[in-house]
Design a protein that fits this description.
Blueprint (H helix, E strand, L loop, with lengths): L11 H13 L4 H9 L10 H24 L8 H21 L1
InterPro entries: NikA-like
Organism: Caproicibacter fermentans
Pfam families: NikA-like
C-alpha cells in the first residue's frame, strides 16, 4: 500500500531519461524508480502484445469449436491449423524465456 509521499530534485535531462526508460518498460515513473531503487529486475519484451493477441485468438477459435462439438453441430474437426499456430506460439515463448535468463 502506497501511503507516503517522497519528493526530490532532479535535472530536466535526467527526468527525461527516466521518463523514457519507464515508458520503454511499460511502467509509470513512480513504479520504475521504485523498482530501480529496490534492485528489482525490469524486463521488457518486444512483441509480447502481438503474441498475447495471437494466443487469445487461438483460444477463442478452440473454444468456438469445442462449443460446436458440445452442441452436436460438428462431430469431426481439423485441428491442424490450431496445432501449427500453437507450436509457433510455444517456440516464441521459449525463445523469449531464453532471453530473460
Amino acid at each position: 500500500m502506497k501511503n507516503k509521499d517522497f519528493a526530490f530534485r532532479i535535472s530536466e535531462r535526467d527526468l527525461e531519461v527516466i521518463r523514457r526508460k519507464a515508458a520503454q518498460a511499460g511502467m509509470n515513473v513512480t513504479a520504475y524508480i521504485t523498482a530501480c531503487a529496490l534492485n528489482k529486475k525490469i524486463v521488457t519484451i518486444d512483441g509480447l502484445r502481438e503474441l498475447t493477441s495471437e494466443v487469445k485468438a487461438v483460444g477463442r477459435n478452440l473454444n468456438q469449436q469445442t462449443t460446436l462439438v458440445h452442441m452436436g453441430r460438428i462431430t469431426v474437426t481439423n485441428l491442424t491449423e490450431f496445432t501449427r499456430v500453437f507450436e509457433r506460439v510455444c517456440d516464441v515463448l521459449l525463445e523469449l524465456a531464453g532471453r530473460i535468463r
